[in-house]
Amino acid sequence: MEGEPTLRLRIFDLNCWAIRYLSKRRQERVRLIGDTLRREDFDLVLLQEVWSEQDYSDLKVKLAGCYPFSHYFRSGVIGSGLCIFSRFPILDTLLYQYSLNGYPYMLQHGDWFCGKSVGVSMGVRAPLLSLSLQLHAEYCREKDAYLPHRLVQAWELAQFIRHTSKAADVVLLGGDLNMHPEDVGIRLLCGWTGLRDAFAEAMHFEGCKNGCTLVPDNCFTDSSELLPFPLGIRIDYILYKAISSFTVKCEELKTTMGPAPGMDIPFSDHEAVMATLHIQRQGQPVGATSGTADLVLADVVTEARTEVGVGLRAAQRQRYSSGRMAVLALLLLLLQAAAALGTLAGLGTEQPFPKLSFCLLAFLALGVLVLATGLHVFHTMEVKMLHGTEDQMRMALRALQEHP
Asked: Which residue out of 71, 136, 149, 270 is catalytically annotated?
């Protein structure tokens, strides 16, 4: 940004819902996204749920002329699904995978297998830190079993931004946060990092009412998820903040509205978010936050810590249950081994159980032992991560209260 008093930056963010074999009309929609991006004049494109590397490769070839710089972030078993396309050079990249990503035995959800992450790139014509990310899905708002995990992810993301943005002039975050604007996770992320919501700050807005990105009019949206929210929900965001002596203003924010122009289908089950930002150097560095803001943030941290504590106690109960099941299975195997040895040693006149039943029971006990041990190890790790996050929040809360 040296020598340029103002930089105008156009950003495109979209959860593409491009799951191979499962997403409807995936290849057609990926081609449509590529055609639109090639036609439009964006500077930075942040995409999520591009699960197929072939889809990314096809987009990279199609967009090479207008977005010569790109990166695909790989993580987990099936990949993070995150990628970035840019008109300007990407100087460096980094992938941070959250310590908690749901449960491996919840196969119908699959968040654990993709390894939810945040992908970071540094560069784009200035010391600009851009992040594309996705947090754990909610699935059921009334009984949100994943809320503690999502709060841990939001806290880790906030800490990550605080510790990696010192060399940047501007931080830009786009992605599917799977949280409503009033949720504690969003308030924690924005309060702890100073990020500002482009929707709330935009001087001009055009798109779905209230900036919603999951809307009932979208033919790919699961209508059952929106029953409590007839107008839709906003879970996709573009957030930003300026560091040092820069200011950022959101001139315009848009969302897509259903089918793409001239087509009978939308880009995805999510609406795209497009922002136009003005980045300008100012005379003096940005000042610190006020004491009142710190007190409000302390309340948010307290609320988040309470929810994490609830998740911690639930994880401790699951760890105890799986550990007890593993011990019982081990005892059963030992009893069977003792009975078998007794029979071989001639202490019994005959096999106490039919051989087939005896073997089936042994295999069942062994299976339960392996499964329960695996669950016990997983929930032990979960307890450690939740406990560690709770300790960090306690420390941050004490600092806010003692030194506002």
From this structure: 270
